[in-house]
């Protein structure tokens, strides 16, 4: 998304269908730009609402989201229906704290920030790094520690232990992501150090980066640590997370418009849902280490 520098049983359900590449594409291709998904058809407008002024849809907490990024946000039945995951449950927790209804403004990965800027949603609560580039155009409140990880075949993954080990490899990333920008920068460093450049290929969807490795079009893919670990567990042994190639170096944030009066309100309510255990519950639900939560 760096276009500016750019079920209880949920986790037991195989998501990628890696036995057949075609099924993988179907499982993770459910993002349709411009769709909205509200949990209910009637907004909460009673006197118990604690919501701040300025919500784009009165009675709703509206979040831009791309539900193809498990375990943070994805469709419960793979291609439609309820949106679940840590971020989705976090959105619901905030809405509940404010006494309004959650509403999901579904868009493509690279359409999240434009959606926020154009007023389609109040926030982006969807696994975005708090990168320097994004912080120049939006406000953000920290929610989770994050960083890039490398996925490859188990045999290759064992040989990847530092960033320079990617020099000369074919590496897949999601288009317009911070990871894509990091791989390009790393390739430049490879060349400067007299090594072979990285052949970097960007794909619109996360599922396509996985397919690229499975089908031999790429040697490895770079993805956030949270998603990478989940991908490996769902790959039926075809993918493994390499050793500590990259150190966690940033955080996921909840983004609001730059200078928006909602920015302070969102920061405060995130502390509320952290303190009341709602975020920890969501993390545990989706097999995330609660210790990576970072709300302040």
Automatic annotation (TrEMBL):
<feature type="signal peptide">
    <location>
        <begin position="1"/>
        <end position="38"/>
    </location>
</feature>
<keyword id="KW-0732">Signal</keyword>
<dbReference type="Pfam" id="PF00497">
    <property type="entry name" value="SBP_bac_3"/>
</dbReference>
<dbReference type="InterPro" id="IPR001638">
    <property type="entry name" value="Solute-binding_3/MltF_N"/>
</dbReference>
<protein>
    <submittedName>
        <fullName>ABC-type amino acid transport substrate-binding protein</fullName>
    </submittedName>
</protein>
<feature type="domain" description="Solute-binding protein family 3/N-terminal">
    <location>
        <begin position="60"/>
        <end position="290"/>
    </location>
</feature>
